[in-house]
Fold each of these.
Amino acid sequence: MMADKKRILVTRDFPPAGIDRLKENSAFELTQWEMDRPMTREELLERAKDHDVVLCTLTERIDREFLEACSHLEMISQFAVGYDNIDVAAAAELGIPVGFTPDAMSDATADIAFGLMIASARKMFYLHNTIAKGEWGYFRPRGHLGVELSGKTLGIFGMGRIGMKTAQRCRGAYNMEILYCSRNRKPEAEKELDAALVDFDTLLGKSDIVSAHCALTAGTRHIFNRDAFERMKPEAIFINTARGPIHHEPDLIRALEGGEIRGAGLDVTDPEPMRQDNPLLFMENVCVLPHVGSGTNEARNEMSAMAADNIVEFYRNGRIPHIVNPEVLSG
């Protein structure tokens, strides 16, 4: 081994599209976590201490304590579009740049959001389970009725890449009216989809489907709470494919049980994994998936390639193509 090789700790079994590129680069030495389960915090901390780069994902908690203990790290490359598992401010203070993989999973996650809308509107998961339990029974003209999505109003909370692609699917397939609430105006969405920028209260009050696509921040944590669900239409469906803590789960359960909203489709929960006795799993009008928004061959390979490129380019020319905290490199 060359003394000047950069040691990269790979925390999970990431797809080969990027990992093979790193392995083939003579400038790097990779340490691959060998188990299927995530590392414990202690295992991650111990291994990171003698590496230059950590290639990680959302299951790793990279907080201030970790960063201060591993302040020698030259960069962190995140295999995800989100990075709420990383204390970015602390990383910036310590001069550690953080790379991520935006847009690689946008189509895959938009598909999940779109699918959850249909599945929850038609009670698909619940009805599938009735077959498995031997409860198919006989035809009931008024039994387990769902709703159609054609012509409904979609409210996008967070019109970023995934929100835009979700809106495109809903507009194209069902000619939905598109409302959106976002930090910045999105002229592209307004021009292409005739989308209307509205405030949060209007989004809640006028949407038949409310789909969350925002980042998890102090301002969005539990923004979908009891008050928000009470302001939604009683026939509304809530979709969350962003982060579990964006909705307050006990308040969501209460709203569904009390008929304050019609249904919900979740790819994210709080906590994760969800307990197997969670009431949401047994509701007729709810569909839950185990955080698989990016779960396609195309998306995961693209994420792997982007995470690897962030490392390669950092050591090649001092730049990171997709960086969370660019101020670290601006000096």
Note: The chain has a mean pLDDT of 96.
Amino acid sequence: MSTAQLVVQHLPYLRRYARALTGSQVAGDAYVAATLETLVNEPETLGRSTNVKADLFRVFTRIWNSLSVNGQTEQAQHDLPAEVRLGQITPLPRQAFLLSCLEGFSEEDAATILGVDVSEVRDLVDEAGRELAADMATEILIIEDEPLIAMDLEALVEGLGHNVTGVARTRTEAVKLASTKRPGLILADIQLADGSSGLDAVNDLLKSFEVPVIFITAYPERFLTGERPEPAFLIAKPFQPANVSAVISQALFFQQSARRREARATA
């Protein structure tokens, strides 16, 4: 397989990571596009190791942390699209947390991507976990038709300090539960028991209120094509508890950040 083919193979996961950092499909894809432009202009940046995926994420991280792209000066921020300006630079601890817990990189690969040593990666992940767990407890609605998976998710989110408002197996049940108690976050499978879609259920709910949504699917590549509006937060089945924890923390973090910006704007 050629290097270009390997890049294409890993691109959906880079896009997932990028949107987890920014909280936005548009902003995340802007950084990914900048990464691909760099690869075209500097093809030698890939192939420095046998791990093309790690190399790809390392190039992305260089772009992400660069002054010119992230716009750390007032003039640079002014020139960037609004969606990118709103996606503030994610601190290094949260980058380490997502690389390890969401993308499943080894400590060694995460250290290479971030340009730090392995012991620092461990410290950064621990720090991020403490920061992201603070003041983020909320009510969570689970939309999942497989009982064992639903039980695992319920135990997991309650272990993180959240409260589960209910578990829905169908689109109709989801709407009914949300009307009884409005959730602060939704975890939704995409294919449900009665043939209905978790996407449709969520769209029904979002007509009444805004809430962060995390979709869970066995086929994430089908929803990371760039051909239509995509879920901002996506977890692949079978999932690891650390993945779910990382994405929940990110979704709630961006929700709280948006609320703080709104409060400052109206103050």
Note: The beta strands are 139-143, 163-168, 185-189, 213-217, 234-236.
Amino acid sequence: MSLSINAAARTQEGKGASRRLRNEGLVPAVIYGGDTAPVSISFKDNELLKAVATPGFLTGLVEVTVEGKTEQVLVKALQRHPSSGAVMHMDLQRAQADKVITTRVPLSFINAAQSEGVKSQGGRLTIESKLAEVRCLPANLPEVLVVDVIKGQLDQIFHLSDVILPEGVELVSLLKGEDHDQPIARIGKSKR
């Protein structure tokens, strides 16, 4: 599922121009990467607020349409106001169909309630990592990575190697070697 949002091209850059845009209800952004020059754009703040609240916007591919031209991008940086949380600026990287991308994808832990460690042994699943960094072609980018904990026992630790990987997707940490197979969840004694 690809999300889409409209943007407008902008010519003025710098702190003053960005401040004026924000006062007009717009959020400055830049699209960079690929074989094309960077493009300065702006989003309507109310549309961007809805988009940022959509699951997958910050971790998946987003279609941005600027003056009738649509590009697939990844959100690489999002700056928020320290007290209000409003989006102040966004950096977007172009995703080319034939180029491998590296990004973070949410982890989804399934079947915890049915696992023996939780159901019979009185344990509780504690999630230690909610995201994992992946490498793949844009077409192979999953919305989530699944970790099935149905066989989980009390005191069992789940690692990145327990993630069910779709075809064409690699975990960046595991490419560095077995010693980078970090823990992502565990079933421990429930503290009731």
Note: The chain has a mean pLDDT of 89.
Amino acid sequence: MAIVEVRQVSRFFLSGEARIKALDNVDLDIEKGEFTAMVGPSGSGKTTLLNQIGGLDHPDTGTITIEGRSITDLDRKSLTELRLWKIGFVFQEYNLIPVLSAQENVEYVMMLQRVSAKERQLRAKQALAEVGLASMEHRRPMELSGGQQQRVAVARAIVSRPAIVLADEPTANLDSKTGASLLDLMHQLNDQHRITFLFSTHDPMVMERANRVVHLKDGRIAREERKPAMGNLSVSVNSDAESGTA
């Protein structure tokens, strides 16, 4: 069973008097252990789709399930609980709490999960060590570089052991060297622990490292590329959205 199943999802927005279709009957499955990038020009729908999967927004039509449970009809409390236990988030702007230390930021989700203080401290320290910040657990965000802050965000996303980590333009505010280092880290976490990652991105480095690249165009999945287990060749699958036969 896929971790994420998106079925016939559409989303509309109003711009003045115009009704804009941000997503157009999208179907998408994400399997456990995938390292997938959603790419496309601005306005293609990739961030909108990521927000739908993360339960940060609701589709106008269609359904989304996480580990077999539909999230489209959940009330706010149930959706908050599902996000807390099943989804890790890595945002472009890091979204760390400035008055908390790196370790406290990583502990925050576990505190909401009511994990004991001893257990969450242990797991937070282990997660920070795993992302290369073992000696910086007491520093606050303002005392860390952009790349270090994003590593804290990754540690926070993985420490609660979610079904999937959603990353919205995680390298956008980083220089190329720092971005590459962060991506190598996430790929390592994916390889070693089978943590599932789904990215929304413009960054070619993310596309190069992804095992699967989903191209969006005008709110539809235009094509996909999957890299075989060995070698660097990609297999491209075109859909009607890009071939012009729709």
Note: The first strand starts at residue 4 and ends at 15.
